[in-house]
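re: ur question from earlier - yeah i can do the single chain one, its not a big deal. heres the input i used so u can compare w yours
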Amino acid sequence: MAAHIVATTAELPDGARKRVQIGTRDIVVFCVGSEYFALLDRCPHQGGKLSDGILCGLAEAGEPGEYRYSRPREFVRCPWHGWEFDLRTGRSIISPDRIRTRRYPARVEPGAKLVEGPYRAETFAVRVEDDYVVVEA
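and the output i got, formated as tokens:
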């Protein structure tokens, strides 16, 4: 997979999301805390845009009346029918072995590292001040 610079970290603060197009694919990138997650921006159920969904956590019950809320903002809920997907894996909560949306690796690279590259050419003084979010697609 090729690497694509999709945003600076300043463009995607905690809680933000950005929809990008890489080739023919629409991908949504989420920032949760200091982590970045990229998913295909299409619910496998009927094609709703996950970029329009809300981020939620996991509510679990050990027994009736006893609820535990965990992993806040690590799931996205499709705005059309409420299907929920784990940002870390792309798997659905309901049927994780059968239903998922495609997940793409996302990471932060310092701008200086991206500028260096493996090539040699005539150079000019440049200053890179931002870190960038990079998606492998």
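Residues 3-136 form a domain with the Rieske Iron-sulfur Protein fold (CATH 2.102.10.10). not sure if urs matches, ping me
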